[in-house]
Amino acid sequence: MGRILCVVNQKGGVGKTTTAVNLASALSMAQQSCLLVDMDPQCNATGSLGITPSNGHALVADQVLSESIQETSQAGLAIVPGSRTFQDVDRLDSGDEDQVHRVRKHLDSVLDQYDFVIIDCPPSVGELTQSALSASTEVLMPIQCEYFAMEGLTQLIKIIRSVMLSTDGRLTFGGILLTMYDPSLELTQEVDQEVREFFGDIVFDSVVPRDVALSEAPSHGQNVFQYAPRSRGAFAYTQLCMEVLQRD
């Protein structure tokens, strides 16, 4: 059965969508069939791959999910586009048990077609994110190497553990990823040490550096491997991909 990775952090600007898009791209380059699911109403993951947001989100529709999947310019990578339609966003964010079950049923229906399903969540710990967690097998948390990196993580981990207890227990901690990493800064070293001391082995060895290529690639409708294959960002997500595969 495929692995469903939910990329989540309650804070914006931590590299959540960047991680979802480029990890999915790296996995597809590693001969892993991958489906990216955009559950963020901002639809940044969708737009960053040059795909137009949908008029209606497939995860609230009655039709089978496979009918809404679109191929991307990256071989082996497909996407369920996000939707900015208020009605769909409200339904996804309602917390209704039937809707939570619908999301999980939709994703489970395509697990035999993909090695990985990567979910890009909104920057919140609301019902939409909890629905995504309930449908996932692993959670991946990007953490920005800045002063408030640990702020709010206690709440997020509490939500994750609550989902683990309220479902059948298939959700596990997939890993914590340090992003916007600048080894020349003392603060980065302090955050790195604090996170690794607190969370231990679930923190990935790979770190994602500050790299303008990661910021520029989405404006061209490309992932970082297409836009700047020799960049530090491309190397970092290649390393992360290898770690994710090793943790199977």
TrEMBL record:
Residues 3-169 form the AAA domain. The keyword Hydrolase applies. Coiled coil: none annotated. It is an enzyme of class 3 (hydrolase). InterPro entries: AAA_dom, DNA_Partitioning_ATPase, P-loop_NTPase. The keyword Hydrolase applies. It comes from the Bacteria. GO terms for molecular function: hydrolase activity. Keywords: Hydrolase. Gene3D superfamilies: P-loop containing nucleotide triphosphate hydrolases (3.40.50.300). Its EC number is 3.6.-.-. This is Soj-like protein. It comes from Stieleria bergensis.
